[in-house]
Amino acid sequence: MHAVLPADLAAALAARPELADTAVRYFPELASTNDTAAALAESGAADGTTVVADRQNAGRGRHGRAWDSPPGAGLYMSVVLRGPRSPVVTLLAGVAVAEAVQGAAGVAVELKWPNDVVALLADGGNSVGTRRKLAGILTEALPGAMDRDAGVVVGIGVNVRSRTFPGELAARAAAVESLAGRRVDRSVLCADLLVRLSRWRRRMVAEGEGFVIGRWRALAPTSRGAAVSWDVEGSRRRGVTAGVDDTGALLVSCAGRTERIIGGEVRWD
């Protein structure tokens, strides 16, 4: 059963009139916010229902990877989005997260296809010129796989508090506060993110998916001209990114032709 909203989260949500009808469920600890949001959706939870946890003990990212979710260190949330499924939803969520992080922390961020929010580190010894992951997005279909209108759950994880990351994450991840050089209010970030997500969904309805993709492209410089590699039937392919098409697929120039990538694992070389 969900707990009473913490006072700071309740205040942050109440300060945004656009969220007056948004159901937010808070849990001190969960296995996965996506799993809980999907279960709520299966029980009839409304569009926009949001699950927030202070800690996940089985948080996950794409391809089943674990998402490190220690208590109090990040923003861990999932949102039920009813309606037709579209691959552009992941890009839309990325735009909302990037804009919310920039607004809350005043730091420049970029998007990396298909679901990462990253920051380019300009200094720091061996980290010069490297991109570190600040946030990730995991979009999963709601139960009812044959029904395109069943909708999705969008899971969002943001590294907020400055901390030491475990294992290989130490070389790939960063926290918003480390870049901002100051405290960042997780509750305010959560509320702003939900507002931006709602606004971008309305804009997509009013102006089309192309409008969302245009904004995503502006925030994703590595979607053009970056060296990447990926596996196809056991063999490694290499190419240079050539943008995203109007469905959100990544385009890569490879051996004189353009490849269209809609899933799988892409490595940024």
Verbal overview:
The structure is a single chain. With 269 residues, the protein is an alpha+beta fold. The chain has two domains: 7-218, BirA Bifunctional Protein, domain 2 (2-Layer Sandwich); 223-268, SH3 type barrels (Roll). Helix content is 27%, strand content 28%. It has six helices and twelve strands. The protein has helices at residues 7-14, 33-42, 88-105, 176-180, 186-207, 209-218, and strands at 24-27, 50-53, 74-81, 110-112, 116-120, 131-141, 152-159, 224-232, 235-244, 250-254, 257-261, 266-268. Strands 1-2-3-7-6-5-4 form a seven-stranded mixed beta sheet, with helices on both faces. Strand 10 (250-254) and strand 11 form a beta hairpin. Helix 5 (186-207) crosses helix 6. It is globular and about 55 Å long. Mean pLDDT is 90; it is low at 124-128.
Short description:
The chain is of the alpha+beta class and 269 residues long. Helices cover 27% and strands 28% of the residues.
Q: Bin the helical content.
A: 25-40%
- Based on CA atoms alone, the radius of gyration comes out at 18 Å
Strand order of the largest sheet: 1-2-3-7-6-5-4
- Derived structural class: alpha+beta
Q: Please count the beta strands (DSSP E, at least 2 residues each).
A: 12
Order of helices and strands: HEHEEHEEEEHHHEEEEE
Fraction in beta strands: 25-35%
Number of domains: 2
Number of helices: 6
Rounded mean pLDDT is 90
End-to-end separation in angstroms reads 44 Å
